[in-house]
Amino acid sequence: MGVGVMIGATLLGGYLQGRAAQRQANAQAAQAQANADIAYNNAQKLQEQGEQQAQNNEINEENKRRKLLQLQGQQRASVGKAHHHERQCAGGNG
Asked: Is the model's pLDDT at 55 over the cut of 90?
């Protein structure tokens, strides 16, 4: 009977150790899943930020282009006025 109790205790100990190991593995798996979820959410946020930044860059480039066209138009108008003024002055003196 002593041997049977020892075997039983050994099996029970092994069983309890197995259960503890299983619980630990489950906890580690849950933590890994939580970390994966966090990483996924962070990646999604980064992608959204990247898309927003690209959109902002497009808008900024379009604004620069429009401003440049506006400045070119103003320069042409100034040059046109200057030429017109020169012709008037030249015509009046001649």
From this structure: yes
